[in-house]
């Protein structure tokens, strides 16, 4: 609506004060239901009547005890006859845990107001790109010799 007001003013047309206030209120309301964010370089927009509530609900529903449960369940089976299955399950859970950790760290930096949107839009390849960029930046900041990542 701001653009409409600006366009009318540019054309020499005017809006009454009530219409302007209404337009400003609509713009403010729009900003409360829309969050713009990016996954690496790709821009996105998340719309909801309660963006911040959805974001908090999403983050609060991530259950860290899930990984503890998997470790407890399969850890006991490492002593059983078919321990290779338990070992494979633990390796998968470890990889899943690492992905979850990094997938939470990246939006904390890149889209803190829309973690849920970042999660919905990222792909593993983009997560790797973001992590590689962070490592490269860290090396530049620390002036450490380059190592294989």
Plain-language structure description:
- The protein is mainly alpha-helical and about 150 residues long.
- It has helices at about 1-10, 15-35, 50-60, 65-75, 85-110, 115-120, 125-140; strands at about 35-40, 40-45.
- A two-stranded antiparallel sheet has the order 1-2.
- It is elongated.
- The chain starts with a helix and ends in a 7-residue tail after the last helix.
- The model has no long low-confidence stretch (mean pLDDT about 80).
List keywords for this structure.
68% helix, mainly alpha, 149 residues, single chain, 7 helices, two-stranded antiparallel ribbon
Topology (elements, then pairings):
Layout: H1 2-10, H2 17-33, E1 34-39, E2 42-47, H3 51-60, H4 65-76, H5 83-110, H6 115-121, H7 124-142
Antiparallel strand pairs: 1-2
Shape: elongated
How many DSSP E strands? 2
Mean pLDDT over all positions:
82
The N- to C-terminal Cα distance equals 48 Å
Reading the helices and strands in chain order gives: HHEEHHHHH
- Rg, Cα atoms, Å: 24 Å
Give the low-pLDDT segments.
none
Helix content estimate: 55-70%
Strand order of the largest sheet: 1-2
Oligomeric state of the chains in view: single chain
Structural class: mainly alpha
Largest sheet: 2 strands, antiparallel
Strand content: 5-15%
DSSP summary: helix tally: 7
Summarize the entry for a quick read.
With about 150 residues, this protein is mostly helical. The chain is built from seven helices and two strands; from the N terminus they run H-H-E-E-H-H-H-H-H.
């Amino acid at each position: 609506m701001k653009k409409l007001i600006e366009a009318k003013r540019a054309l020499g047309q005017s809006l009454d004060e009530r219409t302007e206030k209404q337009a400003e209120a609509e713009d403010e309301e729009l900003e409360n239901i829309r969050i713009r964010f990016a996954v690496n370089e790709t821009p996105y927009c998340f719309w909801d009547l309660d963006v911040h509530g959805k974001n908090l609900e999403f983050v609060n529903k991530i259950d860290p005890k899930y990984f503890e449960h998997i470790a407890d369940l399969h850890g006991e089976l490492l002593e059983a006859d078919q321990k290779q299955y338990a070992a494979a399950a633990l390796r998968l859970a470890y990889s899943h845990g690492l992905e979850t950790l990094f997938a939470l760290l990246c939006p904390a930096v890149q889209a803190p107001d829309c973690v849920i949107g970042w999660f919905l839009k990222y792909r593993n390849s983009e997560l790797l790109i973001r992590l590689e960029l962070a490592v490269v930046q860290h090396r530049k900041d620390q002036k450490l010799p380059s190592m294989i990542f």
